[in-house]
């Protein structure tokens, strides 16, 4: 079996590609629950965020993950936007993702919780087993360690805080400014909190479900507005931030043109942090409108990059040690069936011989039978000790093939030694 990851992210695909091929929650759930429909696909975890869509999988040699990904996204994606890593490179990629080293904003903390959620979802769907359980538990632990032992996440800048930093810079400060937020999800709430921390005076919240807008407004001390009345409120704000998760544009050019007429020449600042995008790109061409999307946030991140890169060097050392440890463990997984088979055969022989002796010695007391059982167990353990040590010592070495073949020859059987991905 092989350990693989196939996916795309902000480094390999622009936002217009990522938003077209994002994986819906329904498709993700359906895919995890129907792994049996794909030959050679035995385990899978699907990580889908605004900046990446990835499948981590344990597969047979001839498994085609590309088809599985296409089925998840409901289309055919050009392979030029994808990356694929095997074995140790796959493990290293996941550990870097969990630690925030592969994020748009280096060291951002939100990705670790997203990795946890992806793993929890897959495990609940019975889509994981020994390999991915081991890999994801170690990766999550490594992500926590990096945040504890380095300053890479110190004052970390998430997508939401980067959006606010951008607004703060372009508007010359946010004190006494006001904002309208479309959306009431986690990202919208994080953005609102960052806005308030910069001294923003007033926040309006619009959502298709008014009760959700009211709930968020109550949490942040803002004001909920009905979705259909949102552009009326927009006539008096300085910033509009969109984060709805809608599958289509929610801010259109004609609406914005009418808005700018009501504003009588006062400019307005749009930040679209949604994937798929909420604001039609044509809106940015309207006079008085400044429009930024997620891809534009890279410039905001630059000022923090050098300090974080220094911390990233230390983080990668931590990750390298942890990846080496998990790959070492994977080496021994390849011998588990063999060692379990050896122990099981020896135990069956022991039990059979004890029963034979016991039948010939009917007068044995319970204590004597217990002593006989303990003695034979010790004999088996001592006899197996050297073979087991040899097997352990040969795991992941050239001698592994020799011992595997020797075992098959001795017992004239196949054992399904499947975890050769540790060698990749």
List low-confidence stretches: 414-424
Structural class: alpha/beta
DSSP E strands, number: 10
| Residue-averaged pLDDT | 88
According to CATH, the fold-level topology of the largest domain is Beta Polymerase, domain 2
Strand content of the residues, in percent? 5-15%
CATH 4th-level superfamily of the largest domain = Glutamyl-tRNA reductase, N-terminal domain
Give me a quick take on this structure.
The chain is of the alpha/beta class.
Task: Describe the secondary structure blueprint for this structure.
Blueprint lengths: L1 E8 L5 H6 L4 H9 L7 E9 L2 E8 L5 H9 L9 E4 H12 L11 H15 L5 H20 L9 H12 L7 E5 L3 H12 L4 E6 L2 H11 L2 E4 L3 H4 L5 E4 L10 H11 L4 E5 L16 E5 L4 H36 L2 H25 L5 H29 L4 H13 L13
Parallel strand pairs: 5-6, 5-8, 6-7, 8-9, 9-10
Antiparallel strand pairs: 1-3, 1-4, 2-3
Helix pairs in contact: 2-3, 4-6, 4-12, 5-6, 6-12, 7-8, 13-14
Structural account:
This protein folds into three domains: 2-155, Beta Polymerase, domain 2 (2-Layer Sandwich); 159-300, NAD(P)-binding Rossmann-like Domain (Rossmann fold); 337-417. The protein has 15 helices and ten strands. The strands form two sheets. It has a six-stranded parallel beta sheet with strand order 7-6-5-8-9-10, with helices on one face. A four-stranded antiparallel beta sheet has the order 2-3-1-4, with helices on both faces. The protein is α/β, with parallel strands linked by helices and 424 residues long. It has helices spanning 15-20, 25-33, 65-73, 87-98, 110-124, 130-149, 159-170, 186-197, 210-220, 230-233, 253-263, 298-333, 336-360, 366-394, 399-411, and strands at 2-9, 41-49, 52-59, 83-86, 178-182, 202-207, 223-226, 239-242, 268-272, 289-293. Helix 4 (87-98) packs across helix 12, helix 5 (110-124) packs antiparallel against helix 6 (130-149) and helix 6 (130-149) crosses helix 12. The protein is 53% helix and 14% strand. Mean pLDDT is 88; it is low at 414-424.
